[in-house]
Amino acid sequence: MTIRLLQVDAFTGSPFAGNPAAVCLLEEARDEAWMQAVAQEMNLSETAYPVREGDAFQLRWFTPEVEVSLCGHATLATSHALWEEGIAAAGEPIRYRSASGPLTARKKGDLIVLDFPAEPDEPIPKPPAGLADALGITPEYVGYNGKDHIFLVDSADTVRKLDPDTIAMRNLCPRCVIVTAPGDGEFDFISRVFAPGAGIHEDPVTGAAHCCLGPFWARRTGKTKFKAFQASKRGGRLDVRVEGDRVFLGGRAVTVLRGELLV
Fold first, then answer.
1. pLDDT-based confidence at 47, cuts 50/70/90?
2. For residue 174, is pLDDT > 70?
3. What count of other Cβ atoms lies within 10 Å of the Cβ of residue 221?
């Protein structure tokens, strides 16, 4: 039996940019060890596994090292793949069941818009010992949302020039470290995201991090709609909208590879 597998660049309209995700189009659920092994073989930041369950899809995400509870770019990639491959009805919303509760993807023009739970942070007196030093920054603000730390720095230039010691960071944070600043051009804010504890030194574009970034910047600006840029080498653009306890993330996706798993 073969299994269809796509590689999709998410949060970009151009190939070889944004964040690549593998999407493994399963007809039935597989065990965790198998999914983890495939994610290691793909060696991308995330591999997604959608399985149809009635009128929705069960969706799980694995890095090369661990399963995660929420992944934005791989959900966007999955939605793109399900529509493109004719597995989901064209133009109809896709509903997911996940470890983070119900999620929805809809098409809006040439964008895919994800409906995700907000994950707002709370200020903390100081970050874990050594974390700011490993990042090489003096933050203006530090917050934590139970999963991720968020650091506000003085400028977009500081974000762009970050060269953190991700080896030192590996045991200092539970999931992601988000560094953000006001935008310096067409974008309202920019960010970079590091997750060495999950085997990802720098994530190119991180939808889940914007579930924290959206509420973070909404509090500071009074706005609810943003143009965001994640300033990794590949780079990625997101439309972010905050509505109560939900965050809506809009982006594009491009399929760059189709293949078959033979095992």
1. very high
2. no
3. 12
Q: Give the three-class secondary structure for 172.
A: coil
Pick the catalytic residue from 28, 46, 65, 92.
Answer: 46
- For 82, left (φ over 0), alpha (ψ -120 to 50), or beta? alpha
Sign of CA dihedral 124, 125, 131, 135: positive
To the query of whether residue 119 is one of the catalytic residues in this protein, the response is no
Q: Which two tokens stand for residue 112?
A: 């895919």
| Residues 170 and 87 occupy one common structural domain | no
Quick one: 94 and 197 in the same domain? no
| C-alpha to C-alpha distance for 150 and 213, rounded to whole angstroms | 8
Give the C-alpha distances (Å, rounded to integers) separating 78 from 114, 140, 179.
11, 36, 27
pLDDT tens for each residue of 194-226: 998 888 899 999 999 999 999 999 999 999 999
CATH number at residue 90: 3.10.310.10
Please check whether residues 154 and 126 belong to one and the same domain.
yes
